């Protein structure tokens, strides 16, 4: 077989499986298919040209080298795949951790604690309720939707990475349901208050006793 034909055969045996198995969301089947097919081609090439190697020792060395090369390629691909899966899993956990920090610090504490402090700083005979103080501070944001959702606009669904749904218990308590629409939660089938599924979600409450919160998913 002419060298040009061998070259075309080698390119085809590597390229065709790679193209057929190509998945833009998962490259590993294509890489594994191309590697296995390329290893088969290398084996056939060595078998076809074994007569060029004259001594038994030389033939053994070529065979061992070829086996080590093929095994090394397969091992490298497998290790890279495992590392990729590990990094993807670790990235999700990191994103969930960042989402939790953002929700707790920026969404819950930053908006609830000033209301709590103002409520207890009141003196004299006239005291505003927690709800009144909250609406005085954030009512405009509730009305224009930048605070996301609240009872007066239950159908509003913002296209942002974080959603906060605000409800009240009379005048004595303010409640949040905070959803990170990007970070993955604990349970994939969990129904978020934002309409999403399986996303990171916290619940928080502000009462005269303080701020409490818990992770729901």
Question: Could you give a short description of this structure?
Answer:
With 217 residues, this protein is of the alpha+beta class.
Tell me about this structure.
- The chain is of the alpha+beta class and 217 residues long.
- The chain has two domains: 3-89; 95-215.
- 55% of the residues lie in helices and 16% in strands.
- The protein has helices spanning 3-20, 28-48, 56-120, 130-144, and strands at 162-169, 173-184, 199-207, 210-215.
- The chain has a four-stranded antiparallel beta sheet.
- Strand 3 (199-207) and strand 4 (210-215) form a beta hairpin.
- The longest helix has 65 residues, at 56-120.
- The radius of gyration is 31 Å and the shape is rod-shaped.
- The model has no long low-confidence stretch (mean pLDDT 81).
Please count the beta strands (DSSP E, at least 2 residues each): 4
Series of secondary-structure elements, N-terminal to C-terminal: HHHHEEEE
Strand order of the largest sheet: 1-2-3-4
Class based on secondary structure composition and strand pairing: alpha+beta
Low-confidence stretches: none
What percent strand?
A: 15-25%
Number of domains: 2
Q: Count the DSSP helices.
A: 4
Radius of gyration: 31 Å
Biggest beta sheet summary: 4 strands, antiparallel
N- and C-termini, Cα separation: 63 Å
Q: Helicity, in percent?
A: 40-55%
The shape, in one word, is rod-shaped
